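Give me the fold.
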Amino acid sequence: MDKTEITKQLELYSNAIIAFIVFQSLAFCYHFGTSDKFNSIVKASKELSVGLTIMFSVALILAFFANRYICLKLEELSGEYGQLVKAICWGKAVVIILFGALPIYVTVRYAMFNA
């Protein structure tokens, strides 16, 4: 594989990580907010809400570090465009943190301490 193919592949992986975190966050928040049954189950079981919080936290941490590693490799491959790639990568990190923290906040705020 040449440098261009590797760069495209790494960018695809980075975008897939972000898409997963965003979709996971929005799907959970949507179902928590619109499904009374799902909402009641999560609120009624402290073990479930703690488990979900841990799972969301682990997913956030792993996504952040996986994306960071991919971005470091992209910066190495980008040459003269390194600063631009670095700025894009930090923007992606912000998206990962914001959308990764959303289901954690919802679970902690509305399921664990508001049951």
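The chain has a mean pLDDT of 93.
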